[in-house]
Amino acid sequence: MTARRFLVTGGAGYVGSHCVLALRDRGDEVTVLDDLTSGHAAALPPGVRLVEAQVEDAATLDAVLADGSFHGVFHFAALSQVGESMAEPLRYFARNTGAAITLIEACRRHGIGGLVLSSTAAVYGEAAAQPIAEDTRPNPSSPYGESKRAVEAMLHWAWTAHRLPYAALRYFNAAGADPGGRAGEDHRPETHLIPLAIDAALGRRPPLRLFGTDWPTEDGTCIRDYVHVTDLAAAHLIAFDRLAGGPVTWNLGTGHGHSVRSVLAEVERAAGRPVPVELAPRRPGDPARLVAASARAQAAGWRPRHAALAEIVSTALDWRRSHPGGYGQC
Ligand SMILES: NC(=O)c1ccc[n+]([C@@H]2O[C@H](COP(=O)([O-])OP(=O)(O)OC[C@H]3O[C@@H](n4cnc5c(N)ncnc54)[C@H](O)[C@@H]3O)[C@@H](O)[C@H]2O)c1
Predict the structure, then answer these.
(1) Which of 12, 189, 262, 318 is the most buried (most CB within 10 A)?
(2) Which residue among the candidates 14, 124, 144, 171 is catalytic per the annotation?
């Protein structure tokens, strides 16, 4: 396939930087637009142009897209912490939903061939039936999930009125790191279980807070579907290439849930050290179990190739060992 040109918003962030690697590995040309509020310029591989700007900045978007040579846009840029969104809902709607209006308008003005959105399992809220199928009615239980659901709705109507093709990819728990060690996870503050458990095991942070051991699950801890970030990146490329057939909405997960305790056991095995734990009460709004049915992505040929929990944890551990200060001190 001949090389193509893509704009990647939020490409300096965790999932976005792995997608940038996948595009570059395929020989595509990439421009990243990122304001670096939570991303890192050092996460970008050589040969990628970084435009340091907000997605909300319509003039910069126009300047970037003006030459008309972009085939598509991957839109990762967003705020993504459920708890923070409960405290600051309007900021989430401004940054996630408002910024997307600016981006969708710019894509329309410049005749972009398609947009792939990072959506989230949080659009489902506390879905009763597990695994969650893609035709489950969204029912977000947080401003974060609602802000993404609103972007999906805008994309649907922009498709209906203007024929801007899109893919809404609802990720479950992104985890792991590039198996080649070129990128990894460096959120500040970190809120995700696997990097927190690894750093607790390595003695780099206080004991891990385990929120609830009385959930209605086999071992009393919450169950989540961890999907390797490299598999997520691969799904974006497949989704973009399917857009000629019309919009798609896919769940991206492995279909297998792992309890918090089983993740901690895997981290301990891989690190060869215990994970110090401090028991804490349940967090309001945390569903007991979130597992994806990814039938549509699988039907399109996507297979999670790094799905084993051992590989997810070992790639994350390798990256954190080789980057003790994250991207700040490589
Ligand atoms: N990490 C997960 O487990 C997960 C799960 C479901 C969905 N998602 C979604 O995937 C996307 C990426 O998540 P991530 O974990 O890589 O987050 P991240 O914070 O690492 O990356 C987000 C990137 O976007 C940039 N950014 C944010 N708002 C911006 C704006 N308005 N203008 C320009 N740049 C902006 C940040 O600087 C950062 O580089 C998000 O949309 C998130 O909602 C992530």
Answers:
(1) 12
(2) 144
